[in-house]
């Protein structure tokens, strides 16, 4: 799928992986690196996928809390499918961090935390064991809604605008006989975030609600991400 841009050649200079890697924004780079290392650890049999998947009983009754994180880091064994997932993860995570969330690292982390939290609540009811693909789908959905005029194409067959990308991918999954649960979770949670972050503040301003922004990161998160600014107090003489 042509997902918003082709990967061009590097002329005769070759591909500089480290330059490409270090150009990825910090949060996207951290997520990509964690996902890649998790898969590498499984391929080398250092860790087992059975110790990574989401399991409500193991997490909340046996104290295996790390599964709340690792369920978002494992994308399957090294394969073409894994590379496909990594492409979408890096591309749309990066596009969001460099686009809507440029200079707003705390807000981007808040975006990921919100998605992870809601998906974790949903997971016990839909029997989904690995949620990384759902989180990636959420990124695709939000990016598409925020770039409504961007033209895209599917295998060069037909064109569409960015908001339809997750639905095209969902349809493609159905045609391949895959379960749509993971994709649907990403779309639903992505729509929830889009409404709370971009639609609700407008409604709140028009109707005079006391709470104008629900998704504003707490001060602690701003401080951890290096984006905290002391409030400015204006004094009148």
From TrEMBL:
GO BP annotations, alphabetical order: cellular response to stress; proteolysis involved in protein catabolic process
Signal peptide limits: none
Record's protein name: Derlin
Family: Belongs to the derlin family.
Keyword Transmembrane helix included in the entry's annotation: yes
Main localization category: endoplasmic reticulum
Superkingdom of origin organism: Eukaryota
Gene Ontology cellular component list: endoplasmic reticulum membrane
InterPro entries for the chain: DER1, Rhomboid-like_sf
Keywords: Endoplasmic reticulum, Membrane, Transmembrane, Transmembrane helix
Localization per record: Endoplasmic reticulum membrane
Sequence intervals crossing the membrane: 30-54, 66-88, 108-131, 152-176, 182-203
UniProt-listed Pfam families: DER1
Lineage: Eukaryota, Sar, Stramenopiles, Ochrophyta, Bacillariophyta
Function: May be involved in the degradation of misfolded endoplasmic reticulum (ER) luminal proteins.
Topology in the lipid bilayer: Multi-pass membrane protein
């Amino acid at each position: 799928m042509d997902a918003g841009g082709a990967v061009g050649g590097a002329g005769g200079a070759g591909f500089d992986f480290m330059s490409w890697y270090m150009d990825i924004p910090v949060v996207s780079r951290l997520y990509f690196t964690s996902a890649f290392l998790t898969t590498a650890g499984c391929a080398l049999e250092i860790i087992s996928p059975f110790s990574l998947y989401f399991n409500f009983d193991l997490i909340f009754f046996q104290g295996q809390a790390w599964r709340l994180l690792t369920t978002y880091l494992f994308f399957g064994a090294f394969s073409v499918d894994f590379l496909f997932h990594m492409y979408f993860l890096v591309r749309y995570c990066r596009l969001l961090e460099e686009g809507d969330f440029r200079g707003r690292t705390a807000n981007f982390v808040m975006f990921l935390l919100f998605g992870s939290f809601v998906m974790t609540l949903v997971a016990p009811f839909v029997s989904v064991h690995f949620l990384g693909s759902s989180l990636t789908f959420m990124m695709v959905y939000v990016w598409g809604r925020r770039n409504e005029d961007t033209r895209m194409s599917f295998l060069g067959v037909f064109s569409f605008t960015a908001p339809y990308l997750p639905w095209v991918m969902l349809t493609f999954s159905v045609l391949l006989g895959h379960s749509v649960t993971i994709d649907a979770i990403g779309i639903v949670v992505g729509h929830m975030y889009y409404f709370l972050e971009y639609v609700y503040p407008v409604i709140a301003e028009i109707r005079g609600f006391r709470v104008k922004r629900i998704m504003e990161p707490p001060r602690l998160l701003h401080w951890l991400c290096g984006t905290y600014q002391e409030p400015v107090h204006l004094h009148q003489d």
